[in-house]
Amino acid sequence: MTIPETMRPTPKAGVLDIEAYVPGKSAAPAGVAKVHKLSSNENPLGASPAAIEAVRNVAGRLEFYPDGAATRLREAIGAAHGLNPANIVCSNGSDEVIGLLAQAYLAPGDEGIFTEHGFLVYRIYIQAAGAVPVVASETNETADVDAILEKVTPRTKIVFLANPNNPTGTYIPFDEVKRLHAGLPKHVLLVLDAAYAEYVRRNDYEAGIEMVSSYENVVMTRTFSKIHGLGGMRIGWAYCPPHIADVLNRIRGPFNVNAAAIEAGVAAMRDRGHLERTVEHNERWLGWLSEELARLGLRVTPSVGNFVLIHFPEDRVHSAAAADDYLTARGFILRRVAGYGFPNALRMTVGTEEANRGVVAALTEFLKN
Ligand SMILES: *Cc1c(COP(=O)(O)O)cnc(C)c1O
């Protein structure tokens, strides 16, 4: 017998419209000798050895609460980036701080804008706040400033821009970000999600630090999950104008960043060498992968991140789904991106040399059949 819905707790309007986030797979079929996880944009070099050591050292004092203000972590971030730690708010992954911004600035009926192939976490948090997700179309799989500005209404409260974006790997130059900001009403919050900023090697790119310092309505979010190789630790941060840092500090969990994460983050921030080696590795293999995949006749969206979006032929035998099955059976786990509006593409994280060469070799065989 089912109990009528009115007799049990029901979530507020909008919650049941949310489609839960589907993370990248991590398992291959039994019997595969070696698994290469290339589905979540993790660092193929792993975490900084200093961060690993720092986490080991925390193990002996797990009974103690962490510093709720994550002071040392904010200081380490501030020192590395030349920022005032008072304007930094740390979080349990940058997903958390993105959610807190939505929760704080979107009321039911308000609108939050993101782009056509934008990071899906924005939609989830906009809906969780009871607000309306508004999608701006892209041009050439790239955010389009005019299309975003056209979507602004009196109900718009937030614009989320991943720059570079995931899963496309495309970016818009700083001039375009400034043009977007200039076109927004001053009460609209512009969130610049710079999760992949460290990977970008372009003179016309800026993550957004200067804009946050100059305006009251811009926030930049960053993560330790990608270049720092600390996805499992869940550490993100936002650089904000003081009035926004104040808001976030009121609504965040009092101990939202755990003790191991704080120590790992401090050590990772200080390890410039590991970051530079990661950037070098990525530069080399991003270029190699883009060329080799193009040589196979596959279209690759031009990426400035640590991943590539690979488009497959329309025929059923060589579709993205077929390629995914073929690669998975050989231990190469890529990311399906149908939910991002790419039913016939796969996203591949730039991996180790072995993984990159292995995927290209496997796809060469796959396309021959
Ligand atoms: C991976 C990613 C994040 C970071 O997520 P965390 O919660 O910090 O692990 C944020 N934004 C984008 C666009 C991403 O791809």
Can you walk me through this structure?
It is an enzyme of class 2 (transferase). Homodimer. InterPro entries: Aminotransferase_I/II_large, HisP_aminotrans, HistidinolP_aminotransfase, PyrdxlP-dep_Trfase, PyrdxlP-dep_Trfase_major, PyrdxlP-dep_Trfase_small. It contains twelve helices and 15 strands. The chain has 369 residues and is an alpha/beta fold. It has two domains: 5-46 and 273-368, Aspartate Aminotransferase, domain 1 (Alpha-Beta Complex); 49-270, 3-Layer(aba) Sandwich (Aspartate Aminotransferase, domain 2). Strand 8 (189-193), helix 7 and strand 9 (218-223) form a beta-alpha-beta unit.
Instruction: Quickly count the helices.
Output: 12
Q: Which ranges are low-confidence, i.e. pLDDT below 50, for 5 or more consecutive residues?
A: none
Estimate what percentage of residues fall within beta strands. 15-25%
Largest sheet: 7 strands, mixed
Helical amount? 25-40%
CATH superfamily of the largest domain: Type I PLP-dependent aspartate aminotransferase-like (Major domain)
State the order of secondary-structure elements, H for helix, E for strand: EHHEHEHEEEHEHEHEEHHHEEHEEEH
For the record, the CATH architecture of the largest domain stands as 3-Layer(aba) Sandwich
**What's the CATH C level of the largest domain?**
Alpha Beta
Tag the structure with descriptive keywords.
Aspartate Aminotransferase, domain 2, binds pyridoxal-5'-phosphate, seven-stranded mixed sheet, Aspartate Aminotransferase, domain 1, alpha/beta, four-stranded antiparallel sheet, 369 residues
